[in-house]
Structure formats: C-alpha cells, structure tokens
Design brief:
It is a single chain. By secondary structure, this protein is mainly alpha-helical. The chain has one domain (2-74). Helices cover 89% and strands 0% of the residues. The protein contains 2 helices and no strands. The protein has helices spanning 2-29, 36-74. The chain is rod-shaped and about 65 Å long. The two termini are 20 Å apart.
C-alpha cells in the first residue's frame, strides 16, 4: 500500500510536468492579440498544474516519512 502511494504521487508529478510543458508552449505560441483568451486559459492551467505538482510532492514526502518510520520500527 505504501509503495502504491509513492507510485501514485510520482505519476501525478509526471502528469503535472507534462501539463506545465503544454501550458508553457501554448503561452509561448500566443503572439497575436486574438490569442489572449488562449493565453489566459493557459496561464490558469499553468497555475493549476503547479499546485497539483506541489500537492504530489507533499504526498511523496509523506510517503518517504511513513516508509522511514516503518524502517525505524523494524530496526
């Protein structure tokens, strides 16, 4: 169960990283004044991916702490 938590957090970080790259590319492509709507949406998505990545990193840190605690109990 603990390893599943770590895997889930790592997958979430990967998805967030991919989303960050997509949003950043969309922002970079938005050069015309009519593209501002797309750029605004991409900026919002960029922030959402940032928050998701941070949440997954906290989950991964909790996983590491739990695993460390279990190893301390076993030792």
């Amino acid at each position: 169960m603990i390893s599943k938590l770590g895997n889930t957090a790592l997958q979430g970080i990967q998805r967030s990283t991919q989303g960050l790259a997509r949003s950043a590319a969309e922002i970079a492509r938005a050069t015309q004044p009519g593209d501002r709507t797309n750029m605004t949406r991409a900026l919002v998505e960029l922030k959402q991916h940032e928050h998701a990545a941070k949440a997954n990193m906290k989950t991964l840190a909790a996983h590491d702490r739990m695993l460390g605690s279990l190893l301390d109990v076993k030792a």
